[in-house]
Amino acid sequence: MSGRNQPSTAPASARGEILIEARGLSKHFAKKGAEPFTAVAGIDFEVRRGEVFGFLGPNGAGKSTTMRMIGCVSPSTGGSLRVFGMDPAADGPAIRARLGVVPQEDTLDTEMQVRDNLHVYGRYFGLPRAVIRERTERLLEFVQLADRARDKVEPLSGGMKRRLTIARSLINEPEILILDEPTTGLDPQARHVVWDRLYRLKQRGTTLILTTHYMDEAEQLCDRLVVMDKGRIAAEGAPHELIARYCTREVLELRFPLDEQDQSAQKAAGIAQKVEVLPDRVLMYADDGDGALQAVRARGLEPLTALVRRSTLEDVFLTLTGRTLVD
Fold first, then answer.
1. Could you please report the per-residue DSSP string of 241-310?
2. Residues sharing a CB contact under 8 Å with residue 227, sequence separation 6 or more, in sequence order
3. 29 with 160, same domain?
4. 62: Cβ contacts below 8 Å, ≥ 6 apart
5. What are the tens digits of pLDDT across the range 71-91?
6. In whole angstroms, what is the distance from residue 212 CA to residue 218 CA?
7. Distance between CA 323 and CA 276 in Å, rounded?
8. 316 part of a folded domain
9. What is the pLDDT of residue 251?
10. Angle in degrees, CA 180, 96, 60, rounded to 5
11. Which residues contact 198 (CB under 8 A, 6 or more apart)?
């Protein structure tokens, strides 16, 4: 994939249109005999036409619940939500007709042929058979599965199944494509192929909303994102803005013998702007990581390993919440 956070090809006036607006959006679950559980706790956000908007956070942060409310399959229990200016509670069918959804788990019919999965799905939208055939051929070409059109789905690789699910979600030519953890479980090569297809959709002006706990995925694809934790939004902005706002330019990762880690971190105090002691390593946030490493060694400390890297969205999350995305 070449470049990231490139401008959409949609006209500037169209990109300014708000397609989704949430104010104080909440979702509470109540079980008989148990305390109510709050999955989403009064969040505000908006999504504009032509942008890629992300929800970044660990499992259980409220990302998927928010997506289900946007997709009109789970009603909100507080606040307001408008999609295309309509209320999901009253206008669910009209909204869903203009959405494409890639669920977290593939729901393909594995005993059917690849192309038939798109044919059947297209009929759900009442599309004429001739239109479905034309779109199926075009979409399978787009996701690089045209040569597998007559194959059964079951033997396809995980990456191929994911691309087929994306093709299926586009059969109704949706205005918004919702993707819930689109590359979870895929190997790195398959993830990059999926990213490339999503990036091409973005360049065509398709509005994408995705959830992910992969910080590199969010950095590659998202124009803007919100960092969610425990049902709340901790921060919002473009990936590079969030990194600049909450982190130093570089991070020095140090590993010491586990029984010496805390003591070593104390000896290194004051070298970096901030120090985080994790179970397996010490993170030192500094604009000059190599300079920080030299200062560490000047104090007589010799780590088992040392790595200087740029700050990422995971560092943003750690700064905001005190824990990593994989906790």
1. HHHHHHS-SEEEEEE--GGGHHHHHHHTTTSSSEEEE-SS-EEEEES-HHHHHHHHHHTT---SEEEEEE
2. 56, 57, 233, 234, 235, 236, 242, 313, 316, 317, 320
3. yes
4. 27, 39, 40, 41, 43, 228, 230, 231, 232
5. 999 999 999 999 999 999 999
6. 7
7. 10
8. no
9. 97
10. 25
11. 52, 166, 179, 182, 208, 210, 221
CB neighbourhood size of 287 (10 A): 13
Looking at the structure of the chain, the number of domains it has is: 2
Distances (CA, A) of 241 to 82, 169, 309: 27, 31, 18
The DSSP secondary structure of 8-26, one letter per residue, reads PSS-HHHHTSEEEEEEEEE
3-state DSSP call for residue 5? coil
Query: For residue range 25-45, what is the model confidence (pLDDT) as tens digits?
Result: 999 998 777 778 899 999 999
| Backbone Cα Rg of the chain | 22
pLDDT digits (tens, 9 = 90+) for 154-199: 999 999 999 999 999 999 999 999 999 999 888 899 999 999 999 9
Phi-psi region of 24 (alpha: psi -120 to 50; beta: other; left: phi over 0): left
Range of the domain at 32: 12-237
**Residue type at position 255:** R
Sort 300 into a burial class: Cβ within 10 Å, 0-12 / 13-18 / 19+: exposed
Mean pLDDT calculated for residue range 290-315: 95
- CATH number of the CATH domain containing 152: 3.40.50.300
Q: State the average pLDDT over residues 236-247.
A: 95
With left for phi above 0 and alpha for psi between -120 and 50, is residue 130 left, alpha or beta? alpha
pLDDT at 306 over 90: yes
Predicted local confidence at residue 49, as pLDDT: 95
Question: Can you give the pTM of this predicted structure?
Answer: 0.85
